[in-house]
Design goal:
Blueprint: E1 12-20, E2 23-31, H1 34-43, E3 45-47, E4 53-55, H2 57-68, E5 69-71, E6 76-77, E7 85-86, H3 93-102, H4 105-115, H5 123-126
Antiparallel strand pairs: 1-2, 2-5, 3-4, 6-7
Helix pairs in contact: 2-4
């Protein structure tokens, strides 16, 4: 029987390049395992008294990005006044949250997609 590599994605740290406008931005992220993803989803999902599933998407996205972005090639704002900047790697969780809240939404969405394994992975990384 042949291997079915097209059904699997390698996980772990990845260097990705995101094209934003005419600029290529090199970022290091972690592509979490399915278990890591499911555990994170579980933390932000609850069943309402009416029996509906309520996902706290804003908190989930913020946690995913603060947890799985390893490094960015530029300094990020540490405060909402954008008076203090520094490396993502040195930022506290609160400083990372501030930076994410002010990040270009297209860049944030592209990073999230890469972390989710939806795009930005080469065929070698996907396993093909």
């Amino acid at each position: 029987m042949a291997k079915a590599n097209k059904y699997f994605t390698k996980r772990g740290e990845r260097d990705i390049t995101i094209k934003l406008g005419d600029e290529n931005i090199d970022i290091r992220v972690v592509v979490p395992t399915n278990r890591q993803h499911d555990e994170m989803m579980e933390r932000y999902t609850e069943l309402t008294p009416e029996g509906l599933v309520d996902i706290h998407g804003t908190d989930l996205l913020e946690d995913r990005l603060t947890s799985y972005i390893i490094s960015l090639p530029f300094d990020v704002p540490y405060d909402e006044e954008m008076g203090t900047y520094g490396p993502w790697d040195d930022a506290t969780i609160d400083q990372k949250k501030v930076a994410l809240s002010m990040m270009d939404s297209k860049l944030r969405d592209a990073i999230n997609d890469a972390i989710s394994g939806e795009e930005g992975l080469s065929s070698d990384e996907v396993g093909n």
